[in-house]
Structures are given as structure tokens and as C-alpha cells.
Amino acid sequence: MASSIENNNEKLTLKSSDGEEFLVEKHVALQSTLLQNMLDSDCSSADVIPLPKIDARTLALVLGYCKKHADASSSKQGELNSFDSEFLKDMDMGALFNLVLAANFMEIKGLLDIAAQKIADTIKDKPHQEVREIFHVENDYTPEEEAAVREENRWAFEGFP
Amino acid sequence: MDKLKHPQKNNFDHLPDDIVLLIFNKLWEAKWLCRCSMVSKRFSSLVPHINNVSVKPARYISTRSKQKEVTSSIFEYLVGLKDLMYVHIEEYFFCEVDWKCSWKPLLKWKFNFNTNVRSFTFLMVSCLLRVELPLAQYEEQDGEEDEEEEEDGEEIQNDINIRQYEERYRVNMAFRCFYDACTKLNIVLDRIGKHQMLRSITISDIKNQEKIVVSGYQIAELRNLERAKLSMPKVDRGLFKCCHVPSLHLPKSKCMMVRPTLVYIRCVNPSCDNEGDDVIDDDMLAGSFEDDEGGVYNEAVKEILAKHKNKMSTTRITKEVDEVAAAAQNQ
């Protein structure tokens, strides 16, 4: 009896870029297409899977997301939606971008979508100067070039609030 | 000196282009994409490759000529977005001043596109009452109402006149919406119809009550057509069906619709001999609002088909009807 439970809850170990190890249940790991493919191609689950591009803080967040989504049944879509919006709330931009990269690397579509949406929502409703400040984007336009681009897109600044 | 440069890392530096595009594709609105181009040269080089765009109507523009200028700029902008797949254009289909009454009636219409049958469904309602009581009680009340009406002859005549005027007005309005929508679709197709990646074009009003959706193979078909052939008013054969119902109980939606008018216009492809039949029309009608939210309109169309089919009139589109519609359009 005990062994069958163990089989169902097979675990694997993930290692972050800064060397921290995370023990993850298999069904949680399956949220990631990357890990799923690794498991399918018979990588032994006893091995430690290194994720050299993802630091421990980000990986912990990613796994939190995967666990919630793996455990929730499909009937709880509303609950998942509110978890998703709560999950990214108040997250600083650095963490959010790390999350996007991690979700992209680990191929977790749902997480990539909500994180990208969050960034898109941050860009919306703001003047471009403010967008530069928030994301630390350097203005590489010369004043002349900037004026030219503005002229090109003049309509977007005129008829719209 | 270092402080003048950005001391913190550019968040976007680590993101590959496809992820930045994924983010841009979630912006949707054309004006945000435009403003995005102002941020940096990299942004500006990526924006032209986006797949999704929506255009909302320009507001806060005082003059009509200015409005036209902005609209043409927007389309000019869309022409440059060669990788567009999903386009959603939101428009005011009627300016506020177009309404003869001070309140906006409940209205929903939808364009059904197909290769040889193009149809248009229009449903307009005087008002929608939410009801909690069992249906039977309302039917009883309805009966009483009818008896009352029979008592006062003069009032009935007045009432009939008003109703007839209203019914005519609604049919005209349906035609006007129909032409309006055709014109807008033509404009959009003319400008961006050649974009090879295009998968879906949606044209709707800002509340999404009124909608044209053209997608998938329909776009491929349309691409092969000459633009002139598309213009609906030139279609010489077609029919329209019309049904006015005093009131309609909608048990599923727990609503009562007061004086709904259903108009259905179908164009018959001149090159195709088969004019289709009633059954196909009923199927088309019944499915008109199926994929939309707000099942009230969907249920209403089905109820009308089920219970008031006898009130439905079918007219071949002849020149006169066309002229009536044209007059309505030019009002």
C-alpha cells in the first residue's frame, strides 16, 4: 500500500542556477513541457535535473505556480484565476521578468501567458517616457529621430485619451 | 557620468525577440503599439511584426474632417503591419445623434459570412424586463391585456399607427446597419485584405453587441474576389424576413422582451442558381447569436422561430426595397 502511494508520488530533484535543490512531485513537474519531455525520454527521476538559467527565488515561485495548477481540479477554474492574479500582484519588475524567462525556458504556457499579460498591462495606459523609466529602457533615439517617430505616429497621441 | 546612464539593467535586454513580441501581442490596441514604438529603437523594430491588433474608435475629436484623417492614419498604420493575424476593429455604428429617441434601444446584430450565402440577423427590442415569477402568471396577464385592448377602438388605432411606424423604422434601421457593416468590411478588406497571415477580422461596436466576423477560409475566398464584387448593395437577388412580436417570454434567461423585431437579410449569390430554402434560413437564424455571450438574444431568436414563425414575413429583395433601404441610409 505504502509503495503504491510512493509510486504515484514519484519525485524528482531540480537544481537552480545558484545550486539550491528542490524536491518536486512528478505530477507538479509535468506542468512544465520541458520536464515532461525529459521524463518521457526516460531521464531517470533519480538524477538531479539542473536548470542553469533559473535562480532559486524564481524557481520557488515557478514551482508554487505549478503545484497550485497541478493540484486544482479543472472545476475550480475561478479559484485558479484568482490565484493567478494574486500570484503576480505586487511583484517587482525584476522578478516578473525572471519569471517570464523561466516560464519560457521550462515551457509553462499558462505562466508565460499571465506574466506576459502583466507586463503588457504595465505598458498600457502609460506615456512612453514612463515605460522607459519602469523597465529601465535607455532612450536610444536622437531628439530628431524621436520627433520623426512621433510625427509618424501622431494619430496615436491625438484622438485618443 | 554613470548615474546619467541607467544604473539598473534594462528589463527587456534579457528577453529574446519572440518573448517581447508575445508581450506586445497582448497589448492589442493599436495606439499602445504606436506609443510603444516611441520607447526605443528595438521596440520600434519589433512592433511591425505583431500578430494581434485592435482598433478602437477615436474619441475627443471635434471635427469630422479630423476624424477622417485619424481613421485613414490608422488604416495606413495597419497596412504596414504585414504579419497581422487577428484584427478587431471597434466602431460606433451609429453616432449618438443618429438616434431619434433619447435612449438607446436594445439592439443586436450579426453578420454571417459564408462563401455563397451571406446573411445578416438583426434583433431590436423596446425593453427587456427581468422576471422572477413563473411563466404561467405572465401568460395569464398577457391574455388580460389583449382583452383590454379590444375595449377602446380609438386607442387601438393610435397604437397600431405608432407600432407600424416603429416597425418600418426598425426595418429601415436594419438595412442601414447592414449597409453600414458592408461598407466598413469593404474598407478593411481593401486595406489589409492582402496580408497573407490574416486569420480573422472582427468588426464590432464598442460594446460588442454588433459584430462582423470573417475568419479562416473566408478570408482566403475574399482575397480572391475583386473588391467591387463584394459590395453588397449591388447584389440583385436576395430576400429578407421580418417578424414583429408584441412580447416574448424567455424562461431560460428569466426575461420578458417587449416588442422585439427580428430582421434577417440574406443575399443570394447571383452566380448561384440555388436560392436556398427555409430550413437553411432557419438554421442560419437559430445559430446567429449562438457563440455570443448574453444568451438572451440567442434564446429570443430561437423562441421566435419556435412560437412566432407564423408572424414572419418573407420578401424577395426587389428594387423598391433596395430603394427604401438606400433612402434610410441617406437620411
UniProtKB/TrEMBL annotation, chain A:
In this entry, which stretches build a coiled coil? none
Where is each SKP1 component POZ domain found? 11-70
- UniProt keyword annotations, A-Z: Ubl conjugation pathway
**InterPro entries, from UniProt?**
SKP1, SKP1-like, SKP1-like_dim_sf, SKP1/BTB/POZ_sf, Skp1_comp_dimer, Skp1_comp_POZ
One Pfam match: Skp1
Q: Which GO terms describe its biological process?
A: jasmonic acid mediated signaling pathway; protein ubiquitination; ubiquitin-dependent protein catabolic process
UniProt pathway:
Protein modification; protein ubiquitination
Family classification: Belongs to the SKP1 family.
Q: How does it assemble?
A: Part of a SCF (SKP1-cullin-F-box) protein ligase complex.
Q: What does this protein do?
A: Involved in ubiquitination and subsequent proteasomal degradation of target proteins. Together with CUL1, RBX1 and a F-box protein, it forms a SCF E3 ubiquitin ligase complex. The functional specificity of this complex depends on the type of F-box protein. In the SCF complex, it serves as an adapter that links the F-box protein to CUL1.
The protein's name = SKP1-like protein
TrEMBL record, chain B:
Q: Which domain of life is it from?
A: Eukaryota
The record's listing under Gene3D superfamilies reads:
1.20.1280.50
Concerning CDD domains, the annotation shows: F-box_SF
Pfam family for this entry, one = F-box-like
Extract the SUPFAM superfamilies matched here: F-box domain
Domain named F-box: residues:
12-47
Which PANTHER family does the entry mention?
OS05G0510400 PROTEIN-RELATED
Name the chain's protein: F-box domain-containing protein
